[in-house]
Amino acid sequence: MIDTEVVRLRNLRNVALRARAFARVLGKPTADGAVFARSAVICWTIARIATGRLRAHPYLSYQQGPSRLRDLVDRSMASVVAFGARRSGRSATVYIEELQRVARAVDDARALTWSAEFSDALGRTQVQLRRLTQELDGRAQHESGTVREFQVEVTAAALQEIAVESNWPYLAI
Fold first, then answer.
1. Neighbour count for residue 4 (Cβ, 10 Å)
2. Neighbours of 25 (CB within 10 A)
3. How far, in Å, are 17, 57, 96 from residue 105 at the CA level?
4. Residue 110 vs residues 18, 24, 52, 132: alpha-carbon distances, Å
5. CB burial string 46-67: b at 16+ within 10 A, e below
6. Which of 58, 61, 63, 167 is most buried (CB neighbours < 10 A)?
7. What are the angstrom distances between the C-alpha of 141 and each of 80, 85, 89, 135, 137?
8. Mean pLDDT over residues 8-34, rounded?
């Protein structure tokens, strides 16, 4: 393992732990707590995979875990952002951005690794992240009210296409 891979793994672990802190704070008093709880578990799994890979390194300085200060900063930042997100009713919208950061970091780490086991473990988490992102995206659209507007636009466009198609004469060849 080279230095750039260690930096990439530390970044992956930090991003996953930050998203986990957001999920823990956002999921407490809401009815959507199950979605946030599942995402916290997935982020914890990603952080554990990255930490296990770092602990396998022969240099002691590379084996260090995240500091307590980082945990404190992540939790306090998540609390502040979650407070604002809950007040505006956009908790899924705010959290989906964090989850997309985790997905990009997982994609990056998986694309640039040589280890088949590590890539396989990250691949399983990618599938779970995609499912969770789709579910949260639906909730975010519902929060912002864009679901109804999209359905109206699709219906109007479909009606226009039907009207145009019925105007064309039938050509039998």
1. 9
2. 25
3. 12, 20, 14
4. 19, 26, 15, 19
5. bbebbbebbeeeeeeebeeeee
6. 63
7. 23, 15, 12, 10, 6
8. 82
Q: How many Å is the Cα radius of gyration of the chain?
A: 22
Whole-number pLDDT of residue 34: 80
Tokens of 136: 């949260």
Comparing CA positions, the residue from 157, 137, 156, 133 lying closest to residue 147 is: 137
Q: What are phi and psi of 39, to 5 degrees?
A: -70, -35
pLDDT at 25: 87
Q: How confident is the model over 6-35, as a mean pLDDT?
A: 82
pTM: 0.71
